[in-house]
Amino acid sequence: MSQLIRGVILAGGSGTRLWPLSRQQLPKQFLNINGVDSMLSATISRSSPLISREDAWVVTGDTHASGEAFSELDGLNLILEPCGRNTAPAIAIAAALFQDLTNEDPVMVVLPADHIISKQAAFQRCLKKAVSAAEDGRLVTFGIVPNHPETGFGYVQTQASDGDVMPVLRFVEKPNLENAQKMLDDGNYFWNSGMFVWKSSTILEEMREHLPEVWELLDAMRKRWNGGEPWQEVIRTTFDQMPNISIDYGIMEKSQRVSLVAADIGWSDVGSWDAVHEMAPHDEHGNDISGNVLAIDCKGSLLRSEKSLIAAVGLEDVIAVETPDAILLCKAGESQRVKDIVDELKLGEGKYHFEHVTVRRPWGSYTILEGGATGYTIKRIEVNPGAKLSLQSHQHRSEHWVVVKGTATVTCGDLVKVVAKNGSAYIPIGEVHRLENKGKMPLQLIEVQVGDYLDEDDIERFEDTYGRAR
Predict the structure, then answer these.
(1) Nucleotidyl transferase domain: from which residue to which, for each copy (predicted)?
(2) Would you list the DSSP string of 280-303?
């Protein structure tokens, strides 16, 4: 197969239905849900060798590239979105960049980053069939072979065919149970997976015909970056003008060039805790138990703990997920409604929807030991060997640092000093400062912030290794 192939990994979204494990700053696609690697890493790996890591491009929010997901994204080709606009604008920009940056017309394999596929060899076979059809100018979608009447997915109807690639008749919205059973019995309906394959020129032609509002803005953006402006800056300053529209609604439901590859690949979109429970290994009583859990006479339950002990007696069909700052309790079968919990949390003053107690950063992490109190916050800060924080200042708080492990190099104004274990440093309000670990071992310190405003946005960066200075 000589055709140039590039992957487009869609890694946006906040994964609200997998709260409290998935948070806005570190959503499910960057987490290890049921395996060794994160879902993003697994998505890239399963596409190899057809798509190399160098030919995979990840579309994600710009805050993730320098935030908690930095370690997952470092070294990858990134298309950074300053705001969410669904899938059609992201795919349009990727297709245009492939043509304009390389003067090529590759086949694009578009894959969500938050799927799990257990049958790798079958996936590779389906991928090759889809690429072959895409070379002939088709828009190819992967249709998952259904094994039960599912009301949580959209469906795709195809013409009856004995071939590997079937013409698509129509897309169907999520059905009720009765209609889902009828479609299962029919045999020509498949679950809509959200995985696509097409040539960049083909999808751009369809954009021009069916999504003129996307095409016109994209054309203006291309003129700017082809005229010499950095394409990343063009996206940063223009992307919010794009309409919010999915590729399914904008193109796939309208195009006459859509085909489907039937895919029996052990697929799950991991859209809820019920889905996680379904695909996980179970004990003899149908339980999925992990972490610090003691369960007696429990059946059909998902029990997961990251820190505190979950002691459960006589539970049946229950979902319980513990993180250091939140616990989810849910009846099995109701986990789609976890999104409603997150919506309620967003209305409050807390950060339970936004981030975990331990927040990862490119340089290491910090853990909030005590927060929310009037006038002070206590954190444990860990800095990786050879890493350093930005040169920064705060207008509303002072900081007191006590080193408990390793050796810190502290910049405070014009003074640079080395602080060993059991030593301390004081950073006054407004003082320019930096923390650095020049050693070969992790640096750990306790930070006490004191001030009248303690949120993370009270920061001005003057220098930053990770591109966050403005």
Answers:
(1) 7-284
(2) S---TTS-EEEEEEEEES-BS-EE
> What's residue 179's pLDDT?
92
Task: Read off the DSSP letter of residue 425.
Answer: E
Measured between alpha carbons, how far is 407 from 420 in angstroms, rounded to an integer? 5
Domains of the chain: 5-268 (3.90.550.10), 273-347 (no CATH), 362-463 (2.60.120.10)
Integer Cα distance of 88 and 77 in angstroms: 19
| H/E segment holding residue 171 | strand 165-172
28: its two tokens: 């499910």
Tokens, residue 296: 């007696």
Contact in structure between 50 and 128 (CB atoms under 8 Å): yes
The residue type found at 183 is: M
Side chain identity at 54, as an amino acid letter?
Answer: E
Q: What is the pLDDT of residue 71?
A: 80
Does this model's pTM top 0.85? yes
* Rounded (5°) CA angle 320-324-325: 90
Please list the ranges in the chain whose pLDDT falls under 70: 1-2, 35, 372-373, 470
